[in-house]
Amino acid sequence: MLHNYIEQFLHYCQASNFTAKSIEALTARLRQFDRYCQTLAIDSITDVSYEHLLAFVADFDTPSVHVKKSRVWTLHQFYHFLKLIQLIDENIATHIPYPKLVKKVPQYLTMTEFNLILRYFASQADTPHGLRNLIVIMLFGFLGLRLLSVLKLNVEDVDLEAGLLCIREKGSVRRLLPLPEILSQALASYLRTNDDPRGPLLLSKRRKRISERTVQDLLRTAIAKLGIEKHLHAHLFRHTAATYLNKVAGPDDTQQVLGHAARRNTVQYTHLNPDVYAVYMRKHPYMNL
User: Fold this and answer.
1) Based on the number of CB atoms within 10 Å of its own CB, is 102 exposed (0-12), middle (13-18) or buried (19 or more)?
2) What predicted TM-score, i.e. pTM, was given to this entire model?
């Protein structure tokens, strides 16, 4: 029933410069919505009621809270399009509330844990691939880069003379970050093993751009060897970088390094500074009772 409208909507999204990841999510959710509508005794999209939309968001295929949130966003966008092409008179989807996400206690690596990981990868940096792996950990832990930003890096993105790295972020955003001296030295050594002045920076054994799976495997191997009781993933390093940068530079610089447009996005990455908290507690008047 909705196939033609969905195709038109996806073309509209491409023309409106939606990201590829957004279009992928919209496609998946709208296919679910189409299947749901086929279970209803209706003949037209105009017969879909607000109650139907609520039932789809909450109950169809027993979704997780993240899927529910994605469905609400998809319906908001899809019904906005249907109103634009005058297929419906009112965007009833705008009244659907987003589900509340249960906030998890954020984790980050302690200095001891992070140093242990750095020493582990540094001990294997006597080969090009070992040095590559160390650079990946430094990019995660020093600069707080997202996994996809690290995977997208090209040789031409590194300017060792200026000590700068060009980062490609979500939404085709580009920005420059200063390189720590130790990371510049590691990159200089690594680039001497690569004769190509352009193309992927971090290479696999087949001289191709490394994949997300490659990074996951090297982190999984590290945590098994080191016995760290945390799930080691790229975003954990992003939390770690933000936490320690916030301790010395404050939230403004942390926001710039992480590349957040809004301060509220940075706050979730910056955890309570235990050093400041300890000083405060020693000064608290009730601590002497």
Assistant:
1) exposed
2) 0.63
Q: Is residue 281 part of a domain?
A: no
The residue with tokens 């002497």 is 288
Domain limits at 65?
A: 3-95
- For residue 283, being part of any structural domain is answered with no
pLDDT, tens digit (0-9, with 9 covering 90-100), for 43-85: 888 899 999 999 999 888 778 888 999 999 999 999 999 999 9
Give the domain-ending residue among 69, 95, 121: 95
Q: What is the CATH number of the domain that holds 269?
A: 1.10.443.10
* Sign of the C-alpha dihedral computed for residues 185, 190, 193 and 197 taken in this order: negative
**Domain tally for the chain?**
2
SS (H, E, C) 142-176: HHCCCHHHHHCCEHHHEECCCCEEEEECHHHCEEE
Place 250 in a pLDDT band, splitting at 50, 70 and 90: confident
- Tokens representing 155? 């040789």
* Each residue's pLDDT tens digit, 23-45: 999 999 999 999 999 898 888 88
